[in-house]
Design a protein that fits this description.
- The chain is an alpha+beta fold and 178 residues long.
- The protein has one domain: Alpha-Beta Plaits (2-Layer Sandwich), CATH 3.30.70.
- The protein is built from five helices and nine strands.
- The protein is globular.
């Protein structure tokens, strides 16, 4: 099984509940498990992380449910185990996206992450929770628990890691079969 990140344009508030349910139903039809569904209101995005065998079945289910436009990218979880992520659903408050430079490799990214991770201790009010790294090395999404955006930015500065976008997120109401 692999993990896939799906990004959707965030629908208006009145249409969100129906969209959440449609995404959940499509994931189930594709034979997957919805790991988390996060609302990035400032970014205007809905982020779904799904575990399943193949992206093609997920893309087909989304298309059939007319959930477009969407993007599906295979991701690698960095930080906790998948079981720990499932147990801690809803803890994140902020999402940082970093668009990788073209010459960055997965090995170099992971080495950098390992080397800099201890520096999070310099910003104790912020807790790094997890990162999803796109296997195509286009970007990563990092989830944090923090009192405010400024604390997240201080943590990113401490670990010497750029920020392309940062914003508050909310976990969507649970429709998933956990």
């Amino acid at each position: 099984m692999s993990l896939y990140l799906s990004e959707f344009i965030l629908p208006p508030q009145a249409e969100r509940e129906a969209r959440f349910e449609s995404i959940d139903a499509a994931v189930v039809r594709a034979g997957g498990e919805l790991i988390e569904l996060q609302v990035g209101t400032e970014a205007g995005r809905l982020y779904a992380v799904v575990e399943l065998d193949a992206a093609s079945s997920l893309e087909a289910a989304y298309f059939e449910a007319t959930l477009g436009p969407f993007e599906v990218v295979e991701v690698r979880l960095v930080g906790p185990t998948l079981e720990e992520v499932k147990a801690a659903r809803g803890e994140a408050g902020y999402l940082v996206e970093w668009d990788f430079p073209e010459d960055l490799t997965m090995d170099a990214y992971l080495a950098r992450k390992r080397a800099n991770a201890p520096k999070y201790a310099l910003v104790p009010e912020t807790t790094f929770l997890r990162t999803y790294v796109c296997e195509d090395m286009s970007k990563c999404l990092c989830f944090y628990r923090a009192p405010d955006e400024a604390a997240v930015l201080r943590a990113r500065e401490a670990v010497e890691t750029p920020v392309s976008r940062v914003g508050r997120i909310e976990e969507a109401p649970r429709h998933v079969r956990a």
